[in-house]
Amino acid sequence: MKNFLQQLILITCGLLLLSTASSSIHAQHDVEVSGKFTFTQGFQNYGVYGLRIYLFFSDTTDTLDPVLLFPNEDIEGKTYDLVEEDGSFAFDFSYVGDLSGYNQILVWPSTRNPAAILLDSEGDGGTGCDPNSEIECRDKAVPKIGGGYSATPMDSIKFFEIESAIPRAINGTNPTIIETGVFGTLGEKQGLVFRGMMLSREYLMERYPSSPSYSMPRIRVRFGLEGAQEDNGQFKSQGTPVSLLFKKIDLGFATIAHEYGHYVNYQMWGANSDRFDNLPDNQLELIEGWAQFYSFATRNDTMTF
Ligand SMILES: [Zn+2]
Q1: Domain boundaries, given as residue ranges, for the chain
Q2: Are 133 and 124 in contact (CB under 8 A)?
Q3: pLDDT bracket for residue 264 (50, 70, 90)
Q4: What are phi and psi for residue 68, nearest 5 degrees?
Q5: Mean pLDDT calculated for residue range 139-149
Q6: pLDDT reported for residue 208
Q7: Residue ranges of E strands in 48-113
Q8: Span from the CA of 71 to the centroid of ligand 1 (angstroms)
Q9: Can you give the pLDDT at residue 121?
């Protein structure tokens, strides 16, 4: 009996020690991280408008993958942020838990914004973007803090290669983690596509008091348009899902807005390939005229590119 009591006391002491230790590391952390994500065209910097970026935590002393604090949530400013038109972004949240094992944050861009998903040249969605570009992409399973991998909504998100993530050294034992002036960049063509698609989408959304009566899901975009065509872009209404294809040479906002205009037209007419592709010859000009108008109207509505 005495033996049992001694054991009980030992166990109780052990639990007390454990709870004391865990209460000191499961502190609340207030996290504020802000900066800009831009690309350069000519000598001008532009915001990668709408780009969906995530905040990861990592430990540079081991080789484990960086983690997301809230992989199963989808809250702007907490799980992710969308880059503003001028390129600025901000995370601002509280986290209760142990961050003492982390000494670095990474602001990591995904391959999507509200208007588009950028695919690789093959267009199979496997790696996320053009392998010939200066920034590679990868299909990434996202580890959760404390082990395991994320389920939805992160499963479908793909990220640019880790080289495009912006690292900042932090002290994970601090209750307040504040990093400002975090600057990241994307390649010119990727930035151009995200910004041009977002502005083209915004022009449409502003025409409706609430939202359009037809859906406008993110459209898949890839580079790799080849051949002697004069066009720099192509809207592909056949095949599932529909997609946009661009050349990387001479790609500009006018082309991006024109092709997005085809997509709007297609969705507006009921997203019906038969109807869109089998118009009589004398009505094909209607489709091209519609896209031309859309491109002019979008650009006319945009003070800055
Ligand atoms: Zn066209």
Answers
A1: 26-187, 191-301
A2: no
A3: very high
A4: -100, 140
A5: 54
A6: 95
A7: 52-58, 67-68, 80-82, 88-96, 104-109
A8: 40
A9: 55
Question: Looking only at Cα atoms, what is the longest distance across the chain?
Answer: 100
User: pTM value?
Assistant: 0.82
Separation of CA 192 and ligand 1 centre (Å):
19
Nearest to 53 by CA among 174, 183, 187: 183
State which CATH number among 1.10.357, 1.10.10, 3.30.70, 3.40.50 fits the domain covering 191-301: 1.10.10
Q: For residue 96, what pLDDT is reported?
A: 93
Greater confidence (70 vs 105) lies with: 105
Query: Ligand 1 centroid vs 262 CA: distance in angstroms?
Result: 7
Using the mean position of ligand 1's atoms as its centre, give its distance from the Cα of residue 42 in Å: 26
Across all residues in the chain, what is the average pLDDT? 81
CA of 79 to the centre of ligand 1 (A): 37
102 to 28, 60, 64, 169, 171: CA distances (angstroms): 15, 8, 11, 9, 7
Distance CA 34, CA 181 (A): 6
Q: Is residue 33 scored above 90 in pLDDT?
A: yes
Contact of 247 with 232, CB cutoff 8 Å: yes
Asked if 89 and 53 count as a contact pair (C-beta separation under 8 A), the reply is: yes
Tell me how far the alpha carbon of residue 174 lies from the centroid of ligand 1, in angstroms: 55
Task: Determine which helix (DSSP H) or strand (DSSP E) holds 17, and give its type and residue range.
Answer: helix 2-25
Each residue's pLDDT tens digit, 36-62: 999 999 899 999 999 999 999 999 998
Strand partners, 169: 104
Q: Whose structure tokens read 């002697």?
A: 228
